[in-house]
Amino acid sequence: MKKMFAKSLYCIVLGGRPSSRRIIVTGSGDDQLDFDQGYQGLTQYLVTVQRNGDRSGHTIEVSSSRSGVTPRTNPLVNNFTLIGAGTGGHGIRLDSRAAGRYQNGVVIDTDACLDYRDTVGDGIEGFESGNDPEFWSVLFDCEDGVFSSKSDTTTGQAAISNDVSGVRGNSFATNTLFDVFVNGTAEAAVRVTPAPRLTGEDTDYIGAVRADDTWWQGWTCGGLGVEGSPPC
Fold first, then answer.
1. Is residue 212 part of a domain?
2. Span 61-82, pLDDT tens digits
3. Which residues have CB under 8 Å from 181's CB, separation 6+?
4. Partners of 94 in the β-ladder
5. Is 197 among the domain residues?
6. Which range marks the domain in which residue 70 is found?
């Protein structure tokens, strides 16, 4: 379990193949979490709460090295709740040959949910599973819609579409989170995607925290704004 509080710049930058569970990130002045430098690990049970009014920071930014350099950044992110409250950033920014699978999550933002650039994957328009970032069983609820104005919406729409590669189970609805990040009825109604074989813990819910979870209590502080999480 990890709790990160940062007043400015990036909170976490990950590379390599480490796996992490039960992470809470609050207060970062830039991106809450960065996946970069060929990161190919598992991140499960992730909560991020962005500081109100932060400029240019994304909740998560996913990028990789230049063309021809391996390995590419290709994370598995399972059971996540991302709460963006900044200005100018987005829920998840994906660029620079990044890939990855993002499933059983909740993305809330005051801007767009996804900044899905045309440089992701192989940089060719058109979605290819396993090569381009894809989303399964994610509830998207963002004030400026799912995609930013600079997104490759042809590839991105296929990456989230419930009509491609079977039923992905994504939801485009108003969130019902309570106590900042705890699942409500809308989150409970989203179909769950099983974790890929030998990776992650299978769960029967999306998001990082369901109503009867207490794993975040007793060791977190700062920025959560709920009982059980005192100031840092």
1. no
2. 999 877 777 888 999 999 999 9
3. 47, 49, 81, 83, 207, 208, 209, 224, 226
4. 62, 116
5. no
6. 2-188
